[in-house]
Amino acid sequence: MPLLEINNLNTRFQTRDGEVSAVNDISFSMEKGETLGIVGESGSGKTQLVLSIMGLLASNGRAEGSARFKDQELIGLPINEINKIRGNHMAMIFQDPMTCLNGYLTIARQMTEVLILHKGMSMADARKRSIEMLDAVHIPAAKTRIDRYPHEFSGGMRQRVMIAMSLLCEPDLLIADEPSTALDVTVQAQIIDVMNELKSDMGMSIILITHDLGVIAGIADNVLVMYAGRICEYAPVNDIYKDPQHPYTRGLLQSVPRLDSDNSSVLHAIPGNPPNMQHLPAGCAYQDRCEFKREICLTERPALRRISDLRQKACHLEAL
Ligand SMILES: Nc1ncnc2c1ncn2[C@@H]1O[C@H](COP(=O)(O)OP(=O)(O)OP(=O)(O)O)[C@@H](O)[C@H]1O
Ligand SMILES: [Mg+2]
User: Fold this and answer.
1) Quick check: pTM over 0.85?
2) E strands within the chain?
């Protein structure tokens, strides 16, 4: 049984200017212990996809379809039920650590509260466990720094604190939404290392969302590439790098900054912009930017299809 199984998930927002289809017919599954990277440009629906799963959509949004987590359906679950799962089995870390850290309370206060509330721990045990978690994410001198306030930490250290906090309840699934974009590349790489360690220590599954295919190279097992709210390619991470089969994946790869090269190398951003989600074109959503465009791409939307045991793509081209 997969840990998470998504089937035909659709998420729409009602706005004054009409309906926005942010997530369109997404299906995938992931196993226990797996790390899935979700990649795509800004606005491709990455965040709304995971918020739909977590029951955290804005009030004008509605998810339909199925998301089964440990064989329990999450879509349509009452708020108190989903809160229980969120507190104990799934955790999410957000792009901005201050979304979940309170600037007015010490780290100790914020961390121990979680354990006392959710796990019924004593204050002394909760403090001990919190320090262990800060150690695990390599916060130096955790024993004393735990009594500091969030603003006394650097950006990278704050990210670590947030990861430590989200792991207190030992979730089966950690969803990390762009946990490193605000940081410089070296710190980014360190944060990914920390997550990699925790993954093997705790046997946790991770969904890692990013703009940047470079970030997930060292951590993901499989990669899901999203464009205009749809999956355009799904494949094991090495196949994505060695043999991208969707023109969009190829475009993203050409715009990956590399840690091992100097910054003077030219990046090729994909020309053009993603389509307006309120007025998606007929046919393939990527048509305006695709160098391989053919007639059929203008009229027929390519269905997601299996191209090998482990790979899927939504493109009319047989091969790239
Ligand atoms: N509350 C809302 N009402 C209307 N539209 C929304 C709402 N929230 C998100 N959207 C739209 O949903 C689409 C997908 O947004 P989403 O936040 O998932 O993008 P993303 O891939 O996470 O982008 P980024 O990389 O910038 O975080 C966007 O077009 C966005 O404008
Ligand atoms: Mg986002």
Assistant:
1) yes
2) 4-15, 18-30, 35-39, 61-69, 72-73, 90-93, 173-177, 205-210, 222-227, 230-236, 305-308, 311-313
